[in-house]
Specification:
It contains eleven helices and 48 strands. It is mainly beta and 711 residues long. Strands 23, 25, 28, 29, 30, 31, 32 and 34 form an eight-stranded antiparallel sheet that branches. Pfam families: DUF2961 (PF11175).
């Protein structure tokens, strides 16, 4: 039972579907006992994902989603995005226990047989890696934990669980190592649980499960190592019949090739275009697949292979995009009679295509399913009012196995606070309610996490302007403007459904703007399983353009051309609540001084006469009731000093030298950190702690503070 949210599961429909499957099967074989070993073997068995699970289960998730989200009929609660707990007033977890002495915060609790198959937690401070939280896994009602330790040390690929079964993603830790249990599971944390997600299988009562133990973990070490090697070397078997297609496809046309007409399965499919000079070609060229006279795949190649807009290399377990332009997928795609692969060119210019498919044998039975891939695109997508954007809605029996999201963000500010909401088999409330789009794709602090990353089961092939060939330098840049592509494929966290599945993603940006969305979705299903995703050639041609870099916003002063930094609080004398008498406050218009640099509204507040040891305090009004990130913009010059900053009594930045030997210029951004407001404001304390040996004085000037809600 998932104690995190009200759930309704149509068990009757599920049992009828299972019964129908069993009655139509030629042979009934007892399912293997679920164990660490069986789950690891399943993780790397691509054939098995193309069959409905023998040991039936439903995927559930315990997360720190906001408990005010109860029904779409209450938009204020449904889109409430305070998905974390940082003090006793926040209750985004199950409960608090003190049975073993110190408080333990219960973050997941499940009764019955199951297995944790994915675990994600972020850095608590976006600028400081790691955590000091102790995590404990209590299995089958035991009073002592089966696993205990620092949650990052255990699950970042360098501790208990090796890479890539666990790894440090961008500002978070993710584990895919299976933790099975026969009777129950309870997970606790030693401190207020920040964001978290525990994704787990909930098995039918008839499924036999062997509970995780450290002893079995050690005994399974050879299989663990073998599984890691397979995941890092994902090439599919080349056994089978090769089918090739090398053609030029003119604009508005398509070319096809038929596959062997018999019980068979595609085990590998590769495609390479002659040129990727126009990045939109990966949206304009569409892959179409038909099995047994039914088209089950219609998807632009960018979202099908995970590259997004343009050529963005990465390697995963199911797909690889190489630097030479070859895109490969290793989904097993069975069929009974016939199959056809088609390439449609929706654009105007001809494209050269090299396509290769490997077709192997397949033993078709009642558990076999057809591979599907659909696509949805929309531009513009307004971010206000908040809304849920449907990836896909499926009817019938099947298993959901992954997706690739490409968005166009027209502004710098972070776009991905939206939670996934997944309804299975007619649920009234989603059994999977997430904590943010970046968390769904296994990273965190998305405003800063624009670097490329890859892993067997998820990746960020492109973000802002960075990809595998153009890595983000080690700079404190927080800019998500432009295209971002996020991709996730599922292994042990696939989602079986007996009657239906609906996956929605919240559109939740910090800016009121129009975004572009395009998503490729992948699932297996019976021949009769239907989808609301239909071909959208016009939308595939509607690739949004990225606006010019949005660094500032027009302020609109009468008769002036000044520009204000986005989210800026300008410094003025009224904000100074204490200072020594020797400091004279002097607003300065720097534009008139013809200085080179960039200031908000072209002015600053000069603290003239400041001396070493002086302390100034300013009250800066908050623009949000939640924690905000404060960034300082200032000036450096030949007579400026060395400063120390604090916010609300907490250290923010120390020994910042504002000396500059040439003509005065702007200095910043200087990230002070994220802070909770106190009485709707921030107390900024500035202390003059010294001066550069070359400086002619110790004065200082502050331009503005920019305030952004903490991601």
């Amino acid at each position: 039972m998932n104690s995190q949210a009200p759930l309704t599961l149509t068990r009757v429909a599920l049992l009828l579907a299972v019964a129908s499957s069993l009655l139509s099967s030629p042979i009934l074989v007892a399912a293997e006992t679920v164990s660490i070993g069986s789950l690891l073997k399943e993780m790397v068995d691509r054939d098995q994902v193309a069959r409905y699970p023998e040991s039936d289960y439903r995927l559930k998730q315990a997360s720190s989603y906001n408990r005010a989200s109860k029904t779409p009929e209450d938009p204020k609660g449904w889109f409430n995005n305070f998905d974390r707990s940082t003090n006793e007033t926040h209750k985004n977890y199950v409960r608090v226990e003190e049975t073993r002495g110190p408080k333990e915060y219960v973050v997941m609790e499940d009764e019955g047989a199951g297995a944790i198959v994915r675990f994600w937690v972020p850095w608590k401070n976006q600028l400081q890696p790691g955590s000091d939280v102790v995590i404990r896994f209590y299995l089958d009602g035991a009073s002592e934990p089966a696993i205990e330790g620092n949650m990052f040390d255990l699950f970042q690929g360098k501790g208990l669980v090796p890479f890539p079964l666990a790894h440090e993603s961008l500002r978070s830790a993710v584990s895919f190592f299976p933790i099975p249990y026969a009777k129950s599971c309870k997970v606790t944390m030693s401190d207020h649980p920040f964001f978290f997600q525990f994704t787990y299988r909930e098995y039918d009562d008839a499924v036999a499960v062997k509970t995780f133990s450290i002893e079995e973990f050690k005994a399974t070490k050879p299989l663990i190592d073998k599984t890691c090697q397979k995941l890092l070397n994902p090439n599919a078997s080349t056994t089978g019949e090769a089918v090739n297609l090398n053609v030029t496809v003119d604009g508005g046309n398509e070319k096809s090739v038929s596959l062997p007409a018999r019980d068979a399965a595609i085990t590998s499919l590769s495609l390479k275009l002659g040129s990727y000079e126009d990045p939109n070609v990966t949206r304009h060229v569409v892959l179409k697949l038909s099995f047994d006279d039914k088209e089950t795949v219609w998807c632009p190649i960018g979202e099908f292979f995970g590259s997004g807009i343009g050529l963005n290399p990465f390697q995963g377990w199911y797909r690889t995009v190489d630097t030479d332009g070859t895109m490969t997928c290793r989904w097993v795609m069975p069929y009974r009679k016939n199959a056809k692969v088609s390439i449609a060119n929706l654009g105007n210019e001809p494209v050269e295509v090299e396509l290769s498919a490997t077709v192997g044998d397949w033993n078709w039975d009642s558990s076999s399913m057809y591979f599907h891939a659909g696509w949805r695109g929309q531009y513009p997508v307004p971010t206000r009012p908040y809304s849920d954007w449907n990836y896909v809605t499926l009817k019938g029996r099947g298993v959901y196995v992954g997706d690739t999201l490409t968005i166009m963000n027209p502004v710098q500010r972070w776009w991905g606070e939206g939670d996934e909401k997944i309804f299975v088999d007619g649920e009234a409330f989603p059994s999977i309610f997430g904590t943010g789009t970046e968390d769904y794709y296994a990273y965190s602090w998305g405003g800063r996490s624009t670097d490329f990353y890859e892993h067997p089961f998820h990746a960020q092939p492109f973000s802002h302007k960075y990809n595998k060939l153009n890595r983000k330098p080690k700079i404190d840049e927080k800019n998500t403007q432009g295209f971002s592509t996020e991709t996730r494929t599922r292994a042990l966290d696939t989602m079986p459904f007996a009657t239906s599945l609906q996956l929605d993603m919240e559109v939740w940006s910090w800016t009121d703007c129009d975004m572009g969305y395009g998503v490729g979705v992948y699932w297996y299903g019976d021949f009769e399983t239907s989808s609301n995703r239909q071909p959208e050639p016009m939308e595939a041609l509607n690739v949004p353009k990225v606006p010019k870099a949005e660094f500032t916003a027009e302020k609109g002063k009468p008769g002036g051309t000044e520009r204000a930094f986005k989210n800026a609080v300008e410094m003025n004398p009224e904000q100074v609540i204490s200072k020594p008498d020797n400091i004279v406050l002097r607003p300065q218009n720097l534009k008139r001084l013809k200085l080179k640099g960039s200031w908000s509204l072209d002015d600053q507040l000069l603290f003239k006469g400041a001396e070493i040891g002086d302390v100034v305090e300013l009250r800066v009004p908050a623009s949000s009731p939640v924690a905000q990130e404060l960034t300082l913009h200032a000036t450096k010059s030949r007579d400026y000093g060395i400063l120390r900053f604090s916010v609300n009594g907490k250290p923010a930045a120390a020994n910042v030298d504002f000396y500059f030997g040439e003509q005065a210029t702007s200095y910043g951004p200087i990230v002070l950190g994220a802070f909770d407001p106190v009485d709707d404001a921030y107390l900024l304390r500035v202390e003059v702690v010294g001066k550069n040996a070359k400086s002619l004085g110790s004065v200082f000037g502050i331009d503005c503070l920019t305030l952004r809600d903490s991601d």
